[in-house]
Amino acid sequence: MRNVTVFIVGLLCLITGCHHKVQTNLSNTISDGALIQGVEIVGNKSVTADTIIRQQLHTKPGTRINMAVIKGDIESLYALGFTDVRVEEEPGDSGYKVVRFAVKEK
């Protein structure tokens, strides 16, 4: 009986430890099709924001916000080892938007 309990507790720890929460309701927080003035990364410590933006993200300044691209960027950030990724939008100059990826490291 004790072995079964230990197995179940271990399995639950494994499942919850490997699961990441994906921000699914992007349509309420992001203006699909808006022009991007800038892209920011906040919450990172071990990898610089410039490196992440340049090498990992497909969301770039001067392009339009594309929900499919942002969802792919979120998955790329999880693949880098971040445990939580949120996407926010702020108004920029002249109707442009600033897209911010807020991340948490392990």
Summarize the structure in short.
It is built from three helices and three strands, in the order αβααββ.
Detailed description of the structure:
35% of the residues lie in helices and 22% in strands. It has 106 residues and is of the alpha+beta class. The chain has one domain (22-104): Roll (Ubiquitin-like (UB roll)), CATH 3.10.20.310. The longest helix is centred in the N-terminal third of the chain and has 17 residues, at 2-18. Mean pLDDT is 82; it is low at 9-20.
Strand content: 15-25%
Radius of gyration: 17 Å
Distance between the termini: 34 Å
Compute the number of strand runs. Answer: 3
Strand arrangement, major sheet: 1-3-2
Q: Could you say what the CATH architecture is?
A: Roll
Number of continuous helical runs: 3
CATH superfamily placement: membrane protein fhac
Write down the overall geometry.
elongated
Structural class: alpha+beta
**Name of the CATH class:** Alpha Beta
Number of domains: 1
Low-confidence stretches: 9-20
